[in-house]
Amino acid sequence: MRDSVAAEKLSERDKKHLWHPLTQHKTSPEMLAIARAEGALLFDEDGKKYVDGIASWYTCMYGHCNPYILDRVKKQMDTLDQVVFSGFTHEPAIKLSEELIKILPRNQEKLFFSDNGSTSTEIGIKMALQYHYNKGKKRNVLLAFEEGFHGDTFGAMSVSGLSVYNGPFEDFFIEVERIPVPTTENLDEILNRLKERLQQNNIAGFIYEPLVQGAAAMKMHGAEGLDQILALLQKHEVLTIADEVMTGFGKTGKYFASDHLRHQPDIICLSKALTAGLVPMGLTTCTEKVYNAFYSDEVAKGLFHGHTYTANPLACTAALAAVELLQTDEIQQNIKNIIGWHQDFNKIIKDHPKVKETRQTGVIYALDLNVQMERYGSLRNKLFEHFMGQGVFLRPLGQTIYILAPFITTKEQMERIYEAIEKALEIV
Ligand SMILES: Cc1ncc(COP(=O)(O)O)c(C=O)c1O
Predict the structure, then answer these.
(1) Residue 87: which domain range?
(2) Do 339 and 306 share a domain, yes or no?
(3) What's the pTM value of the predicted model, to 2 decimals?
(4) In angstroms, what is the span from residue 246 Cα to ligand 1's centroid?
(5) At residue 376, does pLDDT exceed 90?
(6) Helix/strand/coil (H, E, C) string of 205-261?
(7) Is the CB of 247 under 6 A from ligand 1?
(8) Do 171 and 287 fall into the same domain?
């Protein structure tokens, strides 16, 4: 009995009990079973290999099963696996805080741990709401960009503008108002509208994905307009929350997307590449000013939010090793190389008749196809199958094909991605 189960393919066994994220199981094809991964490569259960062109949702930026990170985490496993982080502390969390503070935007002082990207933004939102509450001010509205994406928990969903995911839950959301991402054409209008709106003094915080909106299909905006919006909001005591869950840790060419701006956020949300794809962890960092609004003789003014695995020592160790790798000359050089390769590829592809627009920020490269298609429609599935057939894992979003490969991707592997994209233009 046991042997017959083992002989069945993983993709078959998967169907019996598993429910996958972002999936309509009735219409979607069966899941591809990945047996192992190494560097920029994934290997399926039949041994076929794929270049991971999106670093498994932007997590494994230093490569899968990176030996440096694995070695550190294995050692940590023999020392301390898990301990409650309320009333206790440990060296991996302390060391990580010391090292991260050195590379975070300079105004960041305090770190609050959680489990994933959604919880990191949820906590950022709660910090902003309670900050004003603790000061005795009634500010109950949040501001967010149209088409932003900040996660799947209720606060995060409320501020996310991508309604494809939100339909059944919208009646239960916190109050949010939206502004478009700034362009040279609309900036004055946004600022004027905001100046008027801010007179009501009830906006608690503004959450935004700086420079690149990932789930909105790698939509990009310039630093200048965002800087002016941040300046205005900060003048009116609106807490600014940079959701760097996707953009953090080198992807924009600097350690953080916020490093491209003059105005630093009050709060930063981090996850994904934070732990290099090894284990989940979220982090919400903030300034001394934010922290001080919670620091009080009144117990109830504290931030009463806590997850069981907060600051898990293994996750902190993975993050510490990742932060060390990020700062090495080798990874910094790789980032420069990838930026250059994408620029060269862009020269070849940008005038192709099937290409409507291309854009790049750091190692993030995106192109919009000159065709109409739905976000999860049949052409998207055809493209996905094409890429997998070519041995490349890319996950088109609507009419957008994007690359966000690990920093350790070789030139040859990146060329396989470029060739697969060029071939895709022949089938759309
Ligand atoms: C900008 C941004 N914020 C938040 C999230 C949510 O992170 P998680 O999926 O870890 O909950 C994501 C995930 O893609 C994201 O891109």
Answers:
(1) 69-326
(2) no
(3) 0.97
(4) 7
(5) no
(6) EEEECCCEECCCCCEECCHHHHHHHHHHHHHCCCEEEEECCCCCCCCCCCCCHHHHC
(7) no
(8) yes
